[in-house]
Amino acid sequence: MRTSALRRRGSVVRGSRVLIGQLVRNLVANAVVHNVPGGSVAVRVADGTVRVTNTGPVVARDDLAGLFEPFRRGEGRDRMGPGAGLGLSIVRSIAAAHGGTVAAVARTAEEGGGLEVTVTLPVTVTVGTSAS
User: Fold this and answer.
1) Is the dihedral of CA 83, 71, 86, 40 positive or negative?
2) Stated pTM of the model
3) In the prediction, which pLDDT does 13 show?
């Protein structure tokens, strides 16, 4: 496995560049596929955290627990869309393999609908060294 360190403001997330790239691609693809026509997708990255939000249909809070199960497909029009229902399951597996977590929060209609998925990966804080 090839590993890399992703740095931002004195912190490092260590892991597989390939797998973390796949994690981000799956998050974004899921947000795009399960969005409404003309909707938006926002991606925010902070130290060890990737948060992807879309303006798709409102997700029932009761449906949140099953979102990360393999072969889970959306209801209604989403069931006919592309994919096998593995994207978020793969995200969860990659996050876990790196010691991280993933969580989903349903956004209300007032918040623009859709879903906010947050992946948190362990961060190592780097200590600056001074040249003597």
Assistant:
1) positive
2) 0.81
3) 85
